[in-house]
Amino acid sequence: MIKLFLYTLSFSLSLYVQANSQPNLIVIMADDLGYGDVGFNGSEEIPTPGIDSIAKNGVKFTSGYTSYSVCGPSRAGFMTGRYQQRFGFERNPQWNLTDPKSALPKSEMTIAESLSQVGYHCGIIGKWHLGAEPSLRPNKRGFHEFFGHLGGGHAYFPEKLRIVKTEDVKNENDSYVSYITRNDTPVKTTKYLTDEFSDEALSFVERNQEKPFFLFLSYNAPHTPLQATQKYLDRFAHVKDENRRTYCAMVSAMDDGILRLMQKLEELNLDDNTIVFFLSDNGGPESKNSSNNAALRGAKGDVFEGGFRVPFAMKFPKQIKAGQVYDHPVSALDIFATIADLSQSPLNQDKPLDGVNLIPYLTGEKKGIPHQQIYLRKFDGNRYAIRQGTYKLIIPWRGAPPQLYNLENDIGEKDNIASKYPERVRELNDLRKQWDSELIDPIFLGLIHTEAWKNRKKKKK
Ligand code: CA
Fold this sequence. Notes:
- By secondary structure, this protein is α/β, with parallel strands linked by helices.
- It has 14 helices and 16 strands.
- The strands form three sheets. A ten-stranded mixed β-sheet has the order 7-6-5-4-8-1-9-10-2-11. Strands 13-14-15-16 form a four-stranded antiparallel β-sheet, covered by helices on one side.
- α2 (49-56) packs across α8 (242-267).
- The termini are far apart.
- Calcium ion is lined by residues 31-32, 71, 223, 281-282.
């Protein structure tokens, strides 16, 4: 009798565990953070104990790539798990409240739409930048909660925010000084924006600890405008350059929030079964926000490594051994594929993901490497990159002959060895063309095409 009771008990327990084993997912995305600006990539200038704790308790990816080298398209790739050039999202969208074309198309499934279908509670905090048209905002794309801004960047001090209603925002510049919204309701924020987002993340986790959740913590830091409070600036009084000092302060503020969030996971006993990814949405625009891409060549917008190889780490204590360093290329596109596999969330069979589940590679269960090739195309300018193993072929501008680099001994892409290896150049160029043939042209004009945006840049110079 006792045996039967114990058996029944253990059986129901195992059912209970199964039902509750769907891992939580937190994706923390920084905006325009330099490759060299986190402790785990060697920064000595900016201490980042919060961000570093993710790598320390999990894995640091030395070759982590985003699928584009500027914000909007990179986010469209992460959000769908697919190269965004497959569906024409290849520019930063213009602010447009009426045109559903200037947004992430409904024909693509988002990671939140997928996870919502298997019981996940999904939230996004911070930057969206995937279109402002009402039928395509976060709440219509699988997110139960949205606390943030729809445009590509934002002012950080509450007193700077002067446009209350989203409907009154006329262009991208205006969107920077509009109110933060909770879902579609404007909120009068009172704190430094990075702190607002961190506080909201802690609250999200507290409120949703009983169910599987997906939190996309999408900091707009350290994207311009360069603005930080005295509390964070004081930590970098020794940094002489004013812009760099402010940038360091902005990263430090974000790191404080991440540290608090990691502590909250432990406090709530969620740490073991929560996957946390940390990455930047593209490389640092060094000349604009004083970021530092370390030894990488180029910056945000480039097809060189500095454009799209980013600080990238993840942890999942339940399955992944702590303290790993993984050198094979991985992609931001892998995040969707990883969680879809673990949670058995539905996918669109007609639109296969370009990412893969990384976990079996990290446990050693699967041999080989996640990606034979990593690709990048920039339609405007006809620029390309393709990485295979340690070799990387790029077409730096329209019509230029391909360049070849071996990143293993030339991470700074200084020594073009194309003439020495014509066979490899041909092979990689053929793969590039084949991939290119699967893509479509951009479906909307970008920020770069608006007069206001061009003038704003001129004014700054
Ligand atoms: Ca960005």
